Amino acid sequence: MRLDDHNAVITAAGRDFGRALAITLAGLGATVFLSARTLAAAERTRDDIRDRGAGKAYAFACDLTDPASIRSFAHQVAAHTDHIDVLVNNGARYLEGEDLLAVSDEDVADTLASGATGTVLVTKNFLPLLLRSAKPDIITMISTAGLPGHARSTAHAAFYGAKNAQAGFTEILSKRLRPQGVRVISLYPPDFDNADPLSPGWHTAPRGPENPLTSESLINCILFAIGQPRDCFIKSFHFEEPG
């Protein structure tokens, strides 16, 4: 599918999955507005997109733990466009460790703020631009850690808390925004392989039933969901873990 008529906002696009998604969407013709905690990180992804000559990309700094930074990001995007079609809530700090006492209070607060509060505030601040679109979609990258009863990850409990907050938020938002035509789509992947989309390994990673999920497969799920007719509201994607 082509995305030449799509404007997409992607948080935490300076590296890893956010970067892969931004490069892929831009390669399909979308105009992407990408953020990272530092402007330099966002600009590196923007420059990779521009160097390929595919799609348009704009870079912004956005600290998801800072409400003022989120508001500034939304205002800056609004200066470039009167609407957005796709908002991807990708940003959330990961925190490792099964011992609740092993991390600082500051790390706990930062993890909860970036994943939970950040997702809510990004969505809130970009909703006016989404409501001006004829095809508005909100995509949130959650995690199996956001599923009730999940205990396989070695992530810290604060990360679990942030992911469960995202899950609760998107669940109610899906119902409340449907009358306005906004689709709210959540992905719950386990740990997955995230090859560089500009490397040869992007299309050659093994993708059999015994292999980990790949970021390319996750992106294909997103493309499938946003490519559906507007009567098709796919609320979530859940994935079987290997092994």
Could you explain the architecture of this structure?
It contains six helices and seven strands; from the N terminus they run βαβαβαβαβαβαβ. The protein has 243 residues and is an alpha/beta fold. The protein has a single domain (7-238), classed as NAD(P)-binding Rossmann-like Domain (Rossmann fold), CATH 3.40.50.720. A seven-stranded parallel sheet has the order 3-2-1-4-5-6-7, with helices on both faces. β5 (137-141), α5 (157-177) and β6 form a beta-alpha-beta unit. The mean pLDDT is 95.
Notable characteristics:
single chain, SDR_fam, 7-stranded parallel beta sheet, 6 helices, globular, Rossmann fold, 243 residues, alpha/beta
Layout: helices, strands, pairs:
Elements (H helix, E strand, L loop, with lengths): L6 E4 L5 H12 L3 E6 L2 H14 L3 E6 L5 H12 L7 E4 L15 H26 L6 E5 L15 H21 L5 E6 L26 H12 L9 E3 L5
Parallel strand pairs: 1-2, 1-4, 2-3, 4-5, 5-6, 6-7
Helix pairs in contact: 1-2, 3-4, 4-5
- The rough form would be described as globular
| Radius of gyration, in angstroms, nearest whole number | 17 Å
Total DSSP E strands: 7
Could you name the CATH homologous superfamily? NAD(P)-binding Rossmann-like Domain
The proportion of residues in beta strands is: 5-15%
Q: Count of DSSP helices?
A: 6
User: Would you identify the regions where 5 or more consecutive residues have pLDDT less than 50?
Assistant: none
Q: Structural class per helix/strand content?
A: alpha/beta
CATH architecture: 3-Layer(aba) Sandwich
Biggest sheet strand order reads: 3-2-1-4-5-6-7
- Report the major sheet: 7 strands, parallel
Assembly type = single chain
- CATH class categorisation: Alpha Beta
Give the fraction of residues assigned to helices: 25-40%
- The string of secondary-structure elements, in order, is EHEHEHEHEHEHE
Query: Averaging pLDDT over every residue, what do you get?
Result: 95
Task: Report how far apart the termini are.
Answer: 33 Å
Number of domains: 1
Examine the coordinates and then state which fold CATH places here, giving the name of the CATH topology: Rossmann fold
